[in-house]
Write a structure and sequence with these properties.
The chain has one helix at 3-44; strands at residues 51-54, 68-70, 75-79, 86-87, 98-103, 106-111, 118-120, 123-124, 130-131, 137-140, 143-148. A hairpin with a 2-residue loop joins strand 5 and strand 6 (106-111). 28% of the residues lie in helices and 29% in strands.
């Protein structure tokens, strides 16, 4: 074998090793990003109180929305109006869309005669009021919330 053939074979194997190291580094970065995203998300969640967590991918919405809304008031109004406890500038949301309130150690919800309605677990509310359970999903306009009690 000539020196050129040996050098060519060595460079080929070195190049293959570099490619594998590069692929491994990319997979490791993706893994660490996903791991850190979950840690950051759990750290941001309110502690020791009920809250609403936005389930939508907030980067796809045309309006600003927080990831978590603590349910610290006894009455919470969700809507487009600036006087609402949870103010979201969504065109599909009424000015005063939905009301939540705490009574008899339970969270209640009612639709405030909104144009597009309020959905609980993908079903439109047809009762005047309902009692919320942990894990219920509330859809108001384009925003879907997870109830964490």
């Amino acid at each position: 074998m000539t020196v050129l053939a040996i050098l060519s074979t060595a460079l080929k194997y070195i190049f293959i090793v570099i490619i594998y190291v590069f692929i491994f580094a990319i997979i490791r970065m993706i893994y660490l990003d996903i791991k850190n995203l979950n840690v950051r998300k759990s750290r941001m969640a309110p502690k020791n109180c009920a809250y609403l967590e936005v389930l939508n991918d907030t980067s796809t919405l045309y309006f600003d929305v927080k990831q978590f809304y603590p349910m610290t008031s006894e009455i919470i109004v969700i809507g487009r109006s600036t006087d609402c406890n949870i103010h979201i500038d969504d065109f599909y949301m009424s000015a005063h869309h939905t009301r939540l309130w705490y009574e008899d150690e339970e969270w209640h919800i009612e639709d405030m005669k909104s144009t597009n309605g309020t959905y609980i677990n993908d079903k439109k509310m047809n009762k005047k009021e309902m009692i919320l359970d942990n894990g219920d999903k509330i859809r108001v306009g384009q925003v879907e919330f997870l109830v964490v009690l």
